[in-house]
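Suppose you are handed a protein chain with no further information: no name, no annotation, nothing but its sequence. What can you learn? This example shows the usual starting point.
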Amino acid sequence: MTFSWFDIGFAVGLVHVMGIAAAIHAVMTVRTSQGAVAWAVSLATMPYLTLVPYLFLGRSKFIGYVEARRARNLLMRTRVGEIDWSGISPLAADAHPEFSALTDLTDIPFVAGNRVRLLINGRATFDAIFAAIDRARDYIIVQFFIVHDDTLGRELQRRLLARAAAGVKVYFLYDRIGSHDLPRKYCERLIAGGVMVHEFTAAKRGLFVNRFQLNFRNHRKIVVIDGNEAFIGGHNVGNEYLGEKPPLAPWRDTHIAIEGPAVIGIQRAFAEDWHWSNGSVPPLNHTPAEVDGNMHCQVVPSGPADRLETASLFFVTAINAARERIWLTTPYFVPDEAVFAALRLAVLRGVDVRILIPSRPDHRVVYVATQSYAHEAVRSGIEVYRYRPGFLHQKVVLIDDRAAAVGSANLDNRSFRLNFELMLLTVDHDFAASVARMLDNDFADSTPIERDALRSLAWWWRTAMRVARLFAPIL
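A reasonable first move is to predict its three-dimensional structure. Written in structure tokens, the prediction is:
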């Protein structure tokens, strides 16, 4: 087949028309002005290079997903009934007005009567999770972004199969993109052993166009035992999270164990994801056992179907609540304007603002963009430290000496607008003190970025940082 110049010209013109149409779509649908401008300019001027990436990466909401997800959640709650929180524990929202917006934002109340403890690094985390799995009597919830078929993954598999054989209901949910290399045989063995297994994916059957939307991922890490005990945080399932995979070893991460009524809010986040993935409603315990603790907790699930940008607003709320210090740790520091402005304002209020980031990359483009924002933060009076011993992956927030949050959300646009995340805010002086001690040790193993450090960098490195920053809306 031969093509005339007319055919070639027509094809080129068609691509440009499609690029302009996509640019208009980006202006109308992309949430942030920076992202809209970046996509619109690139689609209009370089459609040959950007049309296909836009199909995969360009939208911050699923086509039809928001309505479908909300309808599914409403259906799920209709089937199981709304949770009567008032009979579980006294509400604590009135005691913490600075955080009251989070209750309205999430539709999950601030609850008292909880006990939360830190699990520092992989060994402590998975020792605690495996011990809890072994004592499960009714059901086990397991949800991770990444699951590897390695030593740790097979140990998890073995324990889940053992509990399923003992008659315990086991629910296993993994993200299709994060666990893209998980062998089919891994899940087949779980299913053969009685474990209920599903993948979370943006694509729903019958919505073909959603199959292009690979940019949306379920980044939550949740384990729940019998509705009484939950585990959330930064760890996925893989040997690297135990610090056994150079060059990122030792891996620095943090999880938490939760007992009390806050577990119910964590379960609800899982139940909505499970219901979306397969249409069924898992029968879960809504009356957790009472515990010897009175920590006040706010569960904060977030995702692209939220009516507001929950994750970003969570960080803004936490930063604005600080009066003495706000310390944050994140593997990726690519904040939006709202969070960055809140950090700058905290500095102007005299708050001790510190951010801890890695000194080595796991994703190079994000790492380079992080360096650009880190240097800008330092010039704004924010103290930024690079963690030296290994890769830093924890997501922790410390607010003064009274509150702390741990979960899965990073300080980047992906967590703010593209991923499903889960954080837990705990208001308790003792818990905050334990987080402060942990972070003090981390800062002692870190190097601060000096205010004039940017000037000493090579021109090509400064250029690379600026170029990487152009991709901030999708990083």
